[in-house]
Amino acid sequence: MLVAIGVMSSITVNAQQVKNVILLIPDGCSLATVSSARWYQWYNNPDKEFLYVDPYLSGTVRTTCSNAPIGDSAPTTSCFMTGYNSRAGWVSTYPIADEKNDIYPMDPAKAYQPLTTVLEAAKIMYGKSTGLVCTCEFPHATPADCSSHSYNRGKYDWIIPQQVHNGINVIIGGGAGLLPDESAQFLKDKGYGVFKNDINAMRSYEGDNMWALYGNSDMSYDIDRDPAKQPSLAEMTKIAIQKLSHNPNGFFLMVEGSKVDWAAHNNDVISMVTDFIAFDEACHEAFEFAKKDGNTAVIVVPDHGNSGISIGRRDQGDYSQRTKEQLFGAMSKYKASSDAISWRINSVPFEDVQKVFKEMCGFELTERELEALKNCKEYEKSPIPKDERKPVRGALYSSGLSRMIAQFMTERTGIAFTTNGHTGEDVFLASYHPQDQFRAKGMLTNVQLNEYLCNMIGTTHASLDSLTAANFAAHTEVLKEFDCSITTTKHEGKDAATLTVKAMKGNKAVNLVMHAGSNIVEVCTSKGKPIANSNVELPSPVIFVDKNNTFYLKRDLIDYVLGK
Predict the structure, then answer these.
(1) Which of 119, 160, 340, 445 is spaced 20 to 30 Å from 495 by Cα?
(2) Confidence of residue 485 (pLDDT cuts 50, 70, 90)
């Protein structure tokens, strides 16, 4: 398929279908983060002047919420996946209209509608394998955007069942403590290898379908990572590609350098640059596979900026005379994230604090910094009782321990930050296509990037809309001629919703039972007793939205289930 995408009426991107698509997202990554990582790498490794992503840089992308220029990870990657801007915190779900502020006009009648993603389309339309790799917990915003639907990114009890029941072939990332035993058993029964904090089992597993999870929630920053216990992002990417590439129909893989964003929120510059370098090595795996394969496209794009990072600071007026040693030398001595240092100093007596900073950062705290630390409410070993602690007068240190430590570390560098939050500048775009003329280039909007991804797998944004209409129709429309009921309960302390439909299978009355987030339709007797070997699997999980008390499900559900 060859499609011309008009961009700003002045740039045209020609998109040609390929067998495999790899999308890599360094979450919350501003361009200055990339520059800082490149300088840091070059300073410490004189033979490595360039990043692996550098030859493929090709443009920029504008990312937004539906009603605000500065986005968060949920609506920004949602737009890459669905072609629709959405609200802050919304995961691949059509937003509530905000007429005065919407960037593009939104249809109020479609609010809360689950939206089919490119990953789901690749699986349903073309039988491609699909995969997710991340260093955050697997139901976090960006991986959730590819594989689930919710107006609340924090509703993991809604998101996890959808991911488990969405037929994703490979998930490698954080969250070993988040996968319920019943979900793990469901996957095992489907033939998956399921591994929690078992790097050797992941490496030796020969099957193609696998979940391998590390850490109770997120994985470690790369600078803190124990390679005997947690794989690198590059290894995770390589393993996912190996398994997914066995499918003759091809694959769609999303890889997220998740904690570039987390470090940026902390203004933890060493974790930002080292996690980006780890991400860059994952990009190398993708590019090398693509070049050898000859039928794979690779797209690298952040979902938004973060932290307002700059190389150069207001309080260093002689910035143009600052040497690379003055700008990056101190950073090269840092051996851990600010999180790891905060955990360390909370585990040793106050008298050993200077020793910890000398060992892990190469410097000792000033008297002013020591006073700020002692007055930090989160510092457990402070000699000052908690109710007597007060902020250091005239200082702007963060009240949080990890962020305060990050400030101590940053002040020894030539780096500055304007915020601990997201920023609205355009993000970089890198791309590879086996035919160079079809690379994504120029300035694209997030909507246009979705169209490009659609074209790469052989479809269009309009086809996503058709899949949405087919697989996520409101139950009030699909079942308007049937007697049905919704029950909501608490299951293990979490919200659960069930839809029951009274129908006829031949001359027998049956109940069709669907649980929110599952793709299994249970066929039961009219009294609710399961009928053996009668369950039917849908192409997509059914989605429940409590705001409008609506289940979204397959439009031809009755014929699909009762015709089996």
Answers:
(1) 119
(2) very high
Residue 384 to residue 140: CA distance in whole angstroms: 37
DSSP-based three-state secondary structure for 354:
helix
Q: Which helix (H) or strand (E) holds 193?
A: strand 193-196
- Name the one residue in this structure whose structure tokens are 């930002």: 272
DSSP 8-state secondary structure symbol assigned to residue 176: T
In the block, tokens 């994952």 appear at 282
- pLDDT at residue number 392: 82
Determine the Cα–Cα distance for residues 515 and 150; give it in Å rounded to an integer: 15
* Alpha helix positions (H), 322-384: 324-328, 338-345, 353-361, 367-374
Instruction: Detail the DSSP E strand segments found in 440-527.
Output: 442-445, 473-474, 483-491, 494-505, 508-515, 520-525
Phi/psi for 498 (5° steps) reads -135, 135
Q: Is the pLDDT of residue 421 over 70?
A: yes
Query: What region, left, alpha or beta, does residue 488 occupy, with left being phi > 0 and alpha being psi -120 to 50 degrees?
Result: beta
Return the CATH number of the domain spanning residue range 2-309+420-471: 3.40.720.10
Question: Which residues touch 450 (CB under 8 Å, ≥6 apart)?
Answer: 79, 80, 81, 82, 83, 118, 461
Judge whether residue 324 has pLDDT over 60: yes
Q: Two tokens at 37?
A: 């990582």
**Residue ranges per domain, the chain?**
2-309+420-471, 334-413, 475-562
Q: Are 309 and 415 in contact (CB under 8 A)?
A: yes
Q: Which of 146-160, 244-258, 525-539 has the lowest average pLDDT?
A: 525-539
Please check whether residue 258 is in contact with residue 222, taking contact to mean a CB–CB distance below 8 angstroms: no
Give CA separation, 104 vs 65, 266, 510, in Å.
10, 32, 45
Q: What is the chain's Cα-based Rg?
A: 25
Closest CA to 396 of 415, 368, 421: 368
Over the chain, what is the mean pLDDT?
A: 94
Q: Do the Cβ atoms of 313 and 320 come closer than 8 Å?
A: no
User: What does the pLDDT average to over 553-557?
Assistant: 97
CB atoms within 10 A of CB 332: 14
- Name the strand (E) or helix (H) holding 211: strand 210-214
| pLDDT for res 393 | 74
CA 424 vs CA 30, 65, 90, 172, 527: distances in Å:
9, 10, 18, 30, 56
Q: How far apart are CA 411 and CA 416, in angstroms?
A: 8
As separate numbers, helices (DSSP H) first and strands (DSSP E) second, the chain gives: 19, 24
Q: How confident is the model at residue 493 (pLDDT cuts 50, 70, 90)?
A: low
- Are 56 and 298 in contact by the 8 Å Cβ rule? The answer is yes
Instruction: Say which residues have a Cβ less than 8 Å from residue 404's Cβ, sequence separation at least 6.
Output: 372, 373, 376, 397, 398
d(CA 26, CA 264): 11
Determine the pLDDT at residue 5: 43
Q: What is the dihedral of CA 106, 454, 463, 109, to 10 degrees?
A: -10
421 DSSP assignment: S
